[in-house]
Each structure stands twice: as structure tokens, then as C-alpha cells.
Amino acid sequence: MLKKWIIRILTVAALAVFLYSVGNLLSIRLWYRAGEKLYSDASENYTQSAPAPTPESIQSTETPVSEPLAEDEPERAPIVVDFQELQELNGDIFAWIYCEDSVINYPVAHCDNNDFYLDYGYDRKPSGTGTIFSDAGNRPGVQDSNIIIYGHHMQNKTMFASLKNWFEQDYYDAHPVMWLLTPEQDYRIDLYSVRSTPATSDTYTIFYEPDEQFEDYILRAKAESGFTSDVEPDPQLHHVLLSTCAYSYYNERTVIHGQLVPVASAGGLPIPAETLSPDVND
User: What is the pTM of this model?
Assistant: First the structure.
């Protein structure tokens, strides 16, 4: 009799553990789906492919620092972002990061701490995916020599989980650039390094102005890269450090370095010639 009761208790316990595990898996799946929908809706509501250039738009811009796509067409970002509507929803949003043929297509926020956007979406509502955000130690916008930008490594391969793909040379060759769009100026991100580093390393040093230490910093990043690139890091340009969690050892991070090359658009739209920034006119 006692044996039967023990078997029953163990059966009930096993069933409870099973149901609890199934419930957790369903909860996680719903959690991921909610995050995917949040940012899929963001892309649908606030971005679109950049319109084809017209003769008028070509004449209204000058050749930027970067090499143009065609002899008479200055380079522009491939998508357009409605920053007016986006910033009415959340004034912390200062940029949009995009990489063609990848999942990276997200708004970028900045606030006075590095905790809030770990657990809140770009709409400032609780979210398991969080938001792509720049380090609180950086000044808002694109002002500093290097801007540290964080994103979760989601198990469904969204947010910044795909940064690890750049350890493969073939993947880098197919995705050598990303884009950082802002209301004031768009930038092509020329990628020149991917590395694994501890979360406590000096890789996370912020440089506000170009100096000899910053030049050493970017050259070391290039030398330690997991892919080979022809990009020569220029300390006079702004740079980004994209960071996400990795799991080969405790507190590991995957980081990608890129330099920001101004192009002839803001938010993806052409910049009128009379308002082009000095960087673009040079």
C-alpha cells in the first residue's frame, strides 16, 4: 500500500514538473513573439525603403566623403526613418541602426542609465527584448569619438544575437557595412573588427575626442579582428562599438567596431546642399 502511494506521489510530482516546464516554454515563446512583433511593427510603421533619386535630388546634394554609388549620384542611406513620429513616441530615440539582409533594423535610444532599456522596449513599455541603446556615459547623439551601443543576444537570433556571425569571413564579405541613420546626418558604418572580450575590459572605454590613445585603441581593435578588412580606422571619424552577450566563458561579450562615414542624407532623405554638414562637404 505504501509503495503505491509513493508511486502516485512521484507520478504527480513528475506531472507537475512537466506542466511547469511546458508552461515556461510557452511563456518564453510568447515573450519572444511579443518582442518580434514590437520591432516588426516599428520597422513597418517608421521606416520604408529610400525612394529612388530624382535629377532634382541629385542636383541638391554634393558628393560626400564616401565614394558615390554612381558618377552623378551621391551615396544615401537605403532606408528612410520617420524620426518625427518616432521621437513623439519616445524622445530618447536618437538613431536607427540597419544592416541589409540581416535582422538588424532597430531604433536606438539613449538615457542617463544603462539599466532601463535592458527591460523596456523603444515604446518605453516593459519588454523582454529591451531596446538597442547607447552607453549612458556617451553624450546623446553622435558627438563622441566612440559610441558604445548595446543590444541583447536573444535566443531567437533577434536584436544583436547575429553579431557573432561576423566571425565568419564569408559573412563579413557579404555584410561589410551597416547604417546609422539620425535626424541630422546619416552614416555608413564601415566595419573593421569583431572580437570576443570580457565585459570588464578596456574595450568599453569611452573617448570623447580623438587623441593618441584613441588611435591606439582603434588600431588594436583592427589588429585583433576575427575577420580581415581593407578598412583603415580613421581617428578623426566617429566610431561605434556594438556589444552583446556571448557564452563561451563567464561575462564574455561579442563586440564589433565600425567607423561612421557621413553620406548625403538624414533619416534616409537627401540633405539640401545648403545644409550639408562640413564633414559631407569636405
Answer: 0.83
85 phi/psi in degrees, rounded to 5: -65, -40
- Cell 538588424 found at: 104
Count how many domains the chain has. 1
Q: How far apart are CA 37 and CA 229, in angstroms?
A: 35
Residue 116 domain-assigned (yes or no): yes
Domain that holds residue 250: 31-49+77-262
CATH number at residue 216: 2.40.260.10
Whether residue 42 lies inside any domain: the answer is: yes
Report yes or no on 56 lying in a domain.
no
Structural domain includes residue 45: yes
Which of 14-18, 171-175, 184-188, 259-263 is least confident? 14-18
- Coil, helix or strand for 236? coil
